[in-house]
Amino acid sequence: MSTVDSQQTTKVDAHTVTSSTGTKVRTTLSSRLSSVLVVVLTLLWTIPTFGLFVTSFRPDTEVASSGWWTVFTNPVFTLDNYNTVLFSGGYNVQGGLIPYFVNSLVVSIPGSLFPLALATMAAYALAWIPFKGSNTIFFIVFGLQVVPLQLALVPLLRLFNTGVHIGDVTVFPALGITGHFASLWVTHTMFAMPLAIFLLHNFMAQLPRDLMEAARVDGANSFLIFRKIVLPLSAPSIASFAIFQFLWVWNDLLVSLTFVGASKEFVSPLTTRLQALVGNFGSHWELLAPSAFVAIVVPLIVFFALQKYFVRGLLAGSVKG
């Protein structure tokens, strides 16, 4: 047997083994046992959330004396918990959570739009506008993802408060934005940029080159191509990252406590108020439970509103042709 025939036989055997393995994996994952296992895991994952939901409607005396599962034998419900957290505030929080709910919107919407606006332009430039050092810049941006958020908070706080000085020379002036919404917008934008540029760049780089060249032949400049072609085609990936970024900013506590603190009532987002509801001994579950469900209303609306784009963004590039 010749060497060529031997190589072809090896390739055929390898393809047969790969196909057989793939068939076995698909059969295993689509079996009835796998379906039952997925349902069981889903139910186990949902039980704590369901328990929290039931607790949000139970009186404080019932919450303190029995578990949430006792509602099946002794159903006692009330709306006083939601009335307290929304309008009166309850323990350690005065005036209710509605102002802090609005603060979270003021933080989350710009904190999601700013990095998206900058990242889409940067990703397009790195993917389709050739210039010297573009690959180096992309690899540096990619490497910045490994920098822990916690590692940069204190240096960034000092940068905002005191600036950067070398001797008597001011290299970077103090911004003086600590305790304001701007500090949260800038911080969330900075930490979102590496991942946003990386994800959007990979999506935009897969767009058809012939389409870009045809637009240039017709006289379109880079900005027109970006606005008329790249942005509409990249809508699924942009929406996918927008969902993730909005959820990250909305649920953030560490950045808010570092740059705003819990005492700034006109700036503090909802998460800092939820933390204040815990109390010194982790009590007041009758207030924490309804507050948690108040906090997840907006993320649920955002997710279901952009769900079709989210799924398209996750599946983009998974099938060729």
Describe the structure.
The protein is mainly α and 321 residues long. It has one domain (88-315): Orthogonal Bundle (MetI-like fold), CATH 1.10.3720.10. Helix content is 70%, strand content 2%. The chain is built from 16 helices and 2 strands. The chain has helices at residues 3-29, 32-55, 60-65, 80-88, 98-128, 134-143, 149-162, 181-204, 209-217, 222-233, 235-250, 254-259, 270-277, 285-295, 297-305, 307-315, and strands at residues 164-166, 169-172. A two-stranded antiparallel ribbon has the order 1-2. Helix 11 (235-250) crosses helix 16 (307-315). The protein is globular. The model is unreliable at 7-18 and 317-321 (pLDDT under 50).
Q: Which key phrases capture this entry?
A:
single chain; mainly alpha; MetI-like fold; 70% helix; globular; disordered C terminus
Q: What is the CATH architecture assignment? A: Orthogonal Bundle
Total E-strand runs: 2
Indicate the radius of gyration in whole angstroms: 26 Å
CATH topology assignment: MetI-like fold
The arrangement of helices and strands along the chain is HHHHHHHEEHHHHHHHHH
The CATH homologous superfamily is termed MetI-like
Backbone shape: globular
- Domain module count: 1
Largest sheet: 2 strands, antiparallel
Largest beta sheet: strand ordering: 1-2
Q: How much β-strand is present in the residues?
A: under 5%
Helix content range of the residues, please?
over 70%
Low-confidence stretches are 7-18, 317-321
What is the name of the CATH class? Answer: Mainly Alpha
Terminus-to-terminus distance: 37 Å
Secondary-structure-derived class:
mainly alpha
Mean pLDDT: 81
